[in-house]
Fold each of these.
Amino acid sequence: MDKPEKTMMKGTDAIGEAAIQAGCRCYFGYPITPQNEIPEYMSRRMDEVGGVFLQGESEIASINMVLGAAAAGVRAMTSSSSPGISLKQEGLSFLASLELPAVIVNINRGGPGLGNIAPSQGDYYQATRGGGHGDYRMPVYAPASVQELYDITMKSFDIADLYRTPVMILGDGMMGQIVEPIVMHARPEVDLPPKDYILDGAEGRPSRIVKSLILDVRLMEEHNWKLKRKYDLMRNELPMHEEFMTEDAKMVVVAYGTAARIAKGAVNRVRSNGLKVGLIRPITLWPFPDEAIAGITKRAKVILVFEMSTGQMIDDVRLATQGKVECEFYGRPGGVVAAPQEIARIIERHWLQKEL
Amino acid sequence: MKKVFTRPECLKRTPFHYCPGCGHSIIHRLVAELIDEMGLRGKAICVPPAGCAVLAYNYFDIDVCESAHGRGCAIATGFKRALPDRFVFTYQGDGDMAAIGTAETIHAANRGEVITSIFVNNAVYGMTGGQMAPTTMLGQKTTTSPFGRRSKVEGFPLRITNLIAQLDGAAYVTRTSVATPAKVMATKKAIKKAFEIQLQGLGYTLVEILSPCPTNWKMTPVESFKYLEERMEKEYPLGVFKDITKD
Ligand SMILES: Cc1ncc(C[n+]2csc(CCOP(=O)(O)OP(=O)(O)O)c2C)c(N)n1
Ligand code: SF4
Ligand SMILES: [Mg+2]
């Protein structure tokens, strides 16, 4: 790709193509709506680039195939939607402890249980709190456009290698299905550490072990602290967010992913009526952009958190703002997608009630 | 002077933690000898189980990747697909292979993954203290089948090896035992054959090895080898159930 040109692309295809361009050569996954277009895309593209596409017998098998490929030193990914991501949690915990790089896409659907196949943000806690067992964290990105899906998918593979960690991309059915013009640029140069941990047969070198069983509690404690130091580094280096019309805002909406797109429409609407309202959109959900959110407390009087859930990210917003500003919440769980008008009405109501 | 007996090179100088009389020690040795003899050290990747053999990496001086309980065949699939010219094998117990990992095992076999599974059947969960396994025999007492396994309550022992022999992706499927020195040698031959078939790229290979767990069978090593031959081999007949190089 010499000259960047615009192409129309569907969200799921953008994820797949970015992965291919990032050098991902192993995809393992199990079908589940609304993300089937990712395995479908990968089944064609992997064949073209001489990579591996394999439909696993379950999400459990698929994440473990990813683990094997990652330990073999090949860039590997899997994708699924909420119920399937629940099944991958054991594997995520192992990847985190074994310090193996992998990219996991969750196209979040309505839940809990089998739920439905509509866009939802009900998996925020599971994604950011370490849905698997043990004391681990994992970078979680929440793109909000097809371009960002492409860019962030590409970046995720570098982040995974850089920190030797699983990385999650959290989207929803809307993000996956939307078609937008994007520029497919080449992968940026990134300095990556050598993969001196991989298992590819001990030819001409001492044998290696990839393991997480550490029976000596002091050594296990040390392993946990080592991971913690890595997570601290991530907290410093990874947070990303977008600010929209926040400079003079008396009220700031905080929303991510699809909810942020809707909120942006709402902010535009109320702005045209003279209401000084802005938007902060966390792009990383873990590490959470605490500083950016804390920064609002110096300017705005009210924060309105909008999520397509009954309220999960609001906990992180409250932690970041430390009670210095009022936090209101509006949610549409279960797969309901609110229109910008609806969010605009909620903004206006709070504006009047708070006499801003 | 001619050396007639020595430690295999790909066994580390670490004493086994296995109980006296445990079959795992014998089987580890056979695998290590074959890796030496077949010159596989430089291309071998081993995926041990969650089970008594979880610490296999302390013994095998080859590349080893831990697995979550039962996921060995999926992890081995990931390795083999990523690195098709390497030699990949899982080492699994009966709980790992035939209870929690049944799906991973059967589907890897059915896809004809070019890997080998060394399946150590001791009819109990050794590591966790002797609970009932899918392979526990009718009437056999374990800590969770204290009255002896009853078909009406706990179901029947699972002969997963016979099941896998039905699958088109399986290339070589056999059951052996370590009850006597002759049977140990036959086991070594079977593992060798499985390894060779993997190297030829012909499909999935499985060697089930009946093996004593004197500790959880609550027997002396001598009693346990007798029980292995007289009871277990009746329930789990030895033999080659599939060999595509012959059939
Ligand atoms: C998900 C999960 N469930 C349960 C366990 C506990 N566990 C470890 S090994 C094992 C059974 C081992 O039995 P087997 O596979 O027959 O191997 P053996 O020790 O007899 O060789 C169990 C239940 C675990 N580690 N992980
Ligand atoms: S508990 Fe049984 S299987 Fe485990 S090491 Fe002891 S004898 Fe072997
Ligand atoms: Mg067992």
Amino acid sequence: MSDLAIKTVNLTKRYSGLWSKQPVDAVKNLNLEVHRGEIFGFLGPNGAGKTTTIKVLLGIIYPTEGEAYVLGKPAGDPKNHYKISYLPENPYFYDFMTGREILTFYAKLFGIPEPDRSKRVNELLDRVGLSRAADQPLRTYSKGMQQRIGLAQCLLNDPDLLILDEPTAGLDPIAHIDIRDMILDLRDQGKTLFISSHQLSDVERVCDRVAILNRGVMVQLGRIEELLAGGHVEVIADKVPDNVVEPIRQLGGKVSLHDGRLIVEQPDNGSVDRVIDIVRAAGGHIISVKPYRRSLEDLFVETIQGGRNV
Amino acid sequence: MNATFAIAGATFGEAVRKRILMVILLVALLIILISPAFEPFAAGRGARTLIISFGFGVIQLAGTFIAIIMCTGMIPTEIERRTIYTILSKPVQRYQFVLGKFFGAVGTLGFMYLMMGIVFLIASRMALGEFDPKIVRGLIMFFFQSSLLAAVVLFFSTFVSPLVNYFLSGGVFLLGNLLSSFLETIQRNPEVTPITRIPVQILTVILPNFANFNVQNPIINPEQVLTDELAYLVQTVAYAIVYIALLLVASMLIFNQREM
Ligand SMILES: Nc1ncnc2c1ncn2[C@@H]1O[C@H](COP(=O)(O)OP(=O)(O)O)[C@@H](O)[C@H]1O
Ligand SMILES: [Mg+2]
């Protein structure tokens, strides 16, 4: 178990609705294993149960059924939190404090003594680019600056595991890139990252593995390249006679031909050359050959919509 | 312990920046400062009684409002704004959070009482021409009264909303001030049956006795004669500390189960 940063066993979290009569299973029978040193994307639409799972992992709420372990110990043990960091969704900090004060406050919670504390706080303010704003109250900070304070407080304790809940939500594209670079940097240092997201951006593309959660149930899990395997190549040609349609169709692609204009969607499995040969042998004129990779977005949408029809 | 004090410090920092609390403090300070102007309305020893009573009245009222307003939202606001998530994700035990909040509240009350006490001492010294040690003892008593009230409010805040808490803790404060003398009255009356008396007795024992702390006020307690004032003070403070400790333990137990 020690090579697992996060493990859940049949984890279920039910909110017994006080007002609405129907209890909600925010997370259902979740079995999750996140290895040390990996970047794990925890994806799913709003309300899928991502934040609920994360709160259980941190001991902010308790499981209804099942178990959760973090860094080999039962979730929620504060002693374990020396090696864990958490960036909440839309984080909010004491806004009467300055950037420096809030980081000092969290450093005290970690029990980091002076003079290390000031040194560490200054380093991190510098690292997230807030040195100049360090002595302004947080209430004057933009959303992006607040998020950077959030990231800085995640790094105070040099954690083994970082749990980031929607780290890019509501940020501009530059901030996305900043965060992605930071994540890659952290991976190079051997950290484990558990990143939740409902919208896909460059950040999720750096994940080693992703799980897709829908309505509390895990509906996909795997390495990104495996999940995205199976793209196709689109071949467009002109001046193609009708008699090529049948032989091309036998190669397994989708074929359409109108007024001599041929469009073939061919599975990306090496048969594209054959399609081109047939077209040219028949006197056709190739206009374009374009590979289409399946994107994470496609997978996400397909998975979620598939789940909806069940 | 580090974490507890860090949380207490943050709580203090936030409280002294709360405009409503500062307004209450400033108004109280202003009234205490001008209270000697009432001297002409009472002659001789009456003037002393009036000025001291009035000052204590203002301080007690301010302390009560500050304790209730400050503490009702203390934990619910942290949950609502989700500032508590980052705190509990650090190596912080939940009991440390509750303790830190309480110490922060008491620190704020201490600061407020210090300010009001200094102004009260100066104003009464100017009006009466001498320094009355009763004032210092009274300040200590009312400070502990407010601290006990803060613990009551904090306890309720671990399981009720701020609005409900205002009524609950306000009610407990009123009952705690009145019940002991009410009980005395009905005990002297032979017509009161045990069916009425016993519930009152039980309530008086269970609810915190806030009346104990009022003895220094010569108008509320005119006939109270204390043979050993110091012993009474120590006893009452000890009562406050024990009651606060019990409330804090109960708060921690409830807060431990709480989901956020
Ligand atoms: N405190 C709560 N009480 C009741 N229901 C909740 C509570 N928190 C979340 N939920 C419900 O649980 C489900 C999952 O929510 P959440 O974990 O926040 O999803 P996500 O983070 O993936 O957007 C949603 O249906 C949400 O309405
Ligand atoms: Mg969420």
Amino acid sequence: MKIEKVSGTGSLPVLECSHLVKSFASRKAVNDISFHIDQGECYGMLGPNGAGKTTTISIACGLLQKDSGEVKVNGKELNHKSILPKRDIGYVPQDLALYPELSASDNLRFFGKLYGLSGRDLEGRINETLETVGLIDRRDDRIESFSGGMKRRANIAAGLLHKPSLLVLDEPTVGVDPQSRNAILEAVQLLSNEGMAVLYTTHYMEEAERLCDRVGIIDKGQIVAEGTRRELVEQLGSLDRIRISVSGMHREGAEVLRKLQGVQEVIEIGDEIEVLIPQARLKLPSVIEALIENHLPLTSLEVVEPNLEAVFLALTGRELRD
Amino acid sequence: MRSIHALLWVGRRRAAKDQRLAGVAILFPVVIMLLVGVLFGSNHPAPIGLIIKSNDQITQRLVSVLESSNSVSLHYYNNLPQMQDDILRGRVVAGVEIPQNFMSQVDEGKNPSIDLIAPAGQAPAITARTIVTAAVAVVSSEWTAALQASKKNHISLDKALAEAEKLTNSAETLISKKVSQQQSPFSYTAPSNLVLFVFITLLGASSAFVDTRKLGVFSRILAAPVRPISVVIGHMLGLFFLAIGQCVFLVVIGRVMLGVNFGDPLALGVLLVVLSLCAAGASTLLGTVAKSSEQAIAIGTVAGIALGMLGGCMWPTSIVGPAMAEFGHIAPQAWAMDAFVKLIYNGAGIGQILPDVLALLAFSVILVVISSTRLRHVISNK
Ligand SMILES: Nc1ncnc2c1ncn2[C@@H]1O[C@H](COP(=O)(O)OP(=O)(O)OP(=O)(O)O)[C@@H](O)[C@H]1O
Ligand SMILES: [Mg+2]
């Protein structure tokens, strides 16, 4: 389960994008996008191919000139004239932007030097970041000898080196084996829990669900919905499900739960019972209480919330992945 | 400043790992210098064939002048087919036939002609041709001068001739002494391969830039607090240092191992700097226009060799005729070679090579301005 964090209310957002617009020729890749990310918050940008995720990120990191709008990093405006706020951002591009013929540590050394790190400080940070992404034992191997997943992890390490207050990751798990994918997600979760703000784009809704405190759903250059996963799901009016096992006594269990207040439907699936109920988490105590009162042996209990895939489908009429 | 430093650091690191670069930059030029120098620059006389169809005084004098030359050795033939055969087989590099009417041609004050048989375009044959032409000129002018002198001063023709010959001989020994003392057999091949390979190496190095660009490394660099102009400067300086490093290395090899005297060190230094600047600019330009690293290598190699040919890196422009030599100066290599020839053969100083240096500088300024503008554009738009 995700550790709840207190968002830095009152303090400045780490990233604040207002009314970003960017066109390529006549196509509007980004069409009036606004969002902010607070300290320690993990913000997910979820959208299909070509939605405008990379374009938005490139503007937010000062890599792409915007047609209009404003980007502020820790309250300071970022544009082509003032580039210093870039120091607070750790950018992990979608492409593998490393020198393949150099070792992981040499690549990190280079990017560290760009941010003004040097000497023992730099060497220390190189080891720490490689530790974070689980590559410390491959420190001195050439990037080109790495597997796809390891390359991706090295790519992330390069964005972490200078201890940014905002980490920007552009689809970091595309084409990655499950093991590396897990390592990446765990690393991001760890950093986020340590207080780093994260902007995470993906078109995998499981990742957004697992990692992100707040999600912006982006389609055709616009944010079509935004909020915590709960808020998004509630906008849809979907219901949570509680999945319960009571060993061998599911029939009796179902009887008991049907009588409970707020329950809309109870379904028996094999040995399990699924209860459809709004605000499932708040209702958990009464569910457990009812089962105990009736001497039903509760062996497992799980809350299943409706997913973002459903939200996206409802909002755009399309699947996230074609 | 910090970012330029980082870019130079990573450039050095990458160059150190690149074995192909070491081959193209160092190994190839040294091997070719040695080969060309040993094969064609040697001080061994070129063997030439000789058929003598007359036995007069002037012919005898011509043969003795040729025999006294250090640059050719004579092989006598009785008939033309046999000599032609040996030319084809490479036993002699060229053949000369002195016609029966040679003496009468000179006597009549004509410009005497003799037949020279040589395969086209080969360096030793060109040496032979030069020597034979010079020898004919010497002999006929001796004869003419002696004739005039004997008439004017009322001395015998034989005596006048002897005087003329004495003059020629002392002049020739002087010249051949000076030439053979100062010039290493590698004096042309060392600078010409330096110029050739600095361009080939640097143009080839643009492929690494294309790779980097495609990988998106430049966007990532610009995600750091770095200005595009710093990236441009860092990139170009890296290439410049690569070129100057290669130049210095090859000059040291030429000087220490091959005994080439590159002349005035100040003038040489200035020449190497503008040459390197020019090559760095050309490399940057190619890196920004090439669509793939393969394309960069292909264009770089072909352009490097073609311009090298035009510029006199494969053979002296003096053998291609004045019009072609003039045309060759569309290549910066030609100006660099002119300057090297002046430094090595004429003992020139900075003043004498200034026109060549300025021409190279003009090439550099144009290349650097165009390519840095393009580079800025390319890196900011990935
Ligand atoms: N440099 C460019 N020139 C022209 N069009 C571009 C350029 N970059 C992006 N686009 C267009 O802008 C739109 C948004 O692209 P973007 O790369 O931001 O999408 P994305 O959400 O990151 O997609 P993906 O999930 O495939 O990475 C697309 O229609 C794309 O074709
Ligand atoms: Mg993208």
Amino acid sequence: MGESPAIQTENLTKIYAGSGRLTHFAAFRKIPGGLIAPPRPPVHALEGLDLRVERGEIFGFLGPNGAGKTTMIRLLLDLIRPTRGKAAVLGLDAQRDAVALHRRVGFLPSELSLWRNQRADRILRYVASVRGDVPTLLAEANRLAERLALDTTRKVRTYSSGNRRKLGLVIAMMHKPELLILDEPSSGLDPLMQQTFYQLLREARAEGRTVFLSSHILSEVQTICDRVGILRDGILRAVESVEALTHVEFRRIRIRAREEIPAGCLENVAGVSEVRLQGRTAELQLHGDFDPLLRALSNFYIEDVRQHDPSLEEIFLAYYGDGSAVEQ
Amino acid sequence: MALPVFRETLRRSVASTIYWGLAFAALALLTVVMLPGAEMLQTFADFMASMPLVVIRAMGVGEDLEFLATAEGFIAVGFFSKMLIFFVAYPLVMGTSISAGEEENGSLEVLLSLPLPRWRVIVEKYAAYLVTMTAILLILYGGILLGVFLAGVALDLAVIRAAVFNLFPSMCFIMGVTTLVGAYVSQARYVLGIVATYIIVSFLLDVVGDMGIGTVAENLSYISFFRYGDSVAVMQHGLEWSSVVAFLVAGVALMLLSTRVFDLRDIRAD
Ligand SMILES: Nc1ncnc2c1ncn2[C@@H]1O[C@H](COP(=O)(O)OP(=O)(O)OP(=O)(O)O)[C@@H](O)[C@H]1O
Ligand SMILES: [Mg+2]
């Protein structure tokens, strides 16, 4: 058992049936006024996913909106059933052994909604009572809540969205699960809380536990993850260590000089491409180190240099733009 | 067994159980307190007798107009019989919250990510609502007792108890129906719509069937659950145990069937 990977999927595929269940009955399709939506075509949300996540790593699942990240996570938790293929989690079948598996897994959904009229501590007690050892679980829950600065004596309805996510994190982590599955965990947390949260994840890793998180924020994945899988249109495009991804990463740079930058002076500078000159400002794309660029500009008085991280889209274009083979 | 969902459902239902119970009890109390005196009752029965047979039957009294002249008869017709349409609102609302309500607001995702098989969510909640339903009927009976005390009327309480008890199987059945629809449909408003339609159609079929005007209407009224939970007959002739058992068994069977339906499908996926 110790050898089994944290997550292993084989040809995991999910096609959402187009129409809602009610439209299976012809009578309901005829109800006018759009009360029940007309039939929709099926959605191929996930296609033949083969993924292996090792124990003890923090794995980031990166992809733009609608890529299929949530679908994958809901399959792992047996909330939805695969159209084809299968998933094994901690050596157990995600569907057949769901209950045994859920004992060892913590989950934070992306659109977390809890019982709004309940107090947070009552909800924690409820979750603990389902999980079993109530006093131990509540002690850990209180410790986590304290670290996340969460007041659990209030009703969920009065929480800000950040507080709600904190409560979700406490629920996901209170039983110290071997595997944490987090769907866009840090959305809604302020920078300070994000740091605390990352710290919690690192501690979990230090204890040999595994974290699987989805995100569309590259910088977050870079900060915290060991490896990332890149998902797009339901297809796993690549699995890379974060270093490798950072290596191909490039920056977009905007430079403002005191005098006009002459055309041509940034040509043939190592790593610089897509230069756009406009009087005293230059916008360019930089691969690799800064040094060649700085040397090329050494004769100018530079007033300002700004850099922004490329969007995931830009990384994709740079990384896979040439249509090169997808590595696994 | 610890039954966490059962206990949590009970805990959260304390307030709503009291509200529903008090609402029903207040209705019952009003009916008892405003009970006409014996002469008025006789006048009322005579007046009814002068009505066309169809109208008399539509009220669900049967042919026995003398029963209507008694206090029990008045309560049977005025409170227990057609009021069933209000009593089943409770299992309708609670049955909807068993799976569809939680699925729609999203909390089901968290619940099912815990080590809890899906069927237990349904079974434990259904069981919890059987308990709250019992509590509501007890409060209702309390309302009648209070009315009897306040108005000083002489009522055969054994008959009243039978009528109150007779509400339970119908409610259990409607909760089973709602649970099944909820397990399949997953959106609370559709569940409410579908089951409320069934209840109203049942009510109308029962009224039409009682009139006994045509064989078609009478035959159709067999699919109305009102037909089998008729409190008037119970108050006249005692509990119809076959109906009681059939409703209870059907309610539980529908609930068990919903666990199957619920187990087979995607959560929050349409
Ligand atoms: N219940 C559903 N029924 C039909 N289509 C769905 C359903 N859920 C998701 N989809 C579709 O499946 C695709 C993948 O959705 P999914 O929610 O997995 O994406 P995601 O990567 O989590 O996106 P986001 O970053 O926005 O959360 C999308 O095209 C979405 O529209
Ligand atoms: Mg998502």
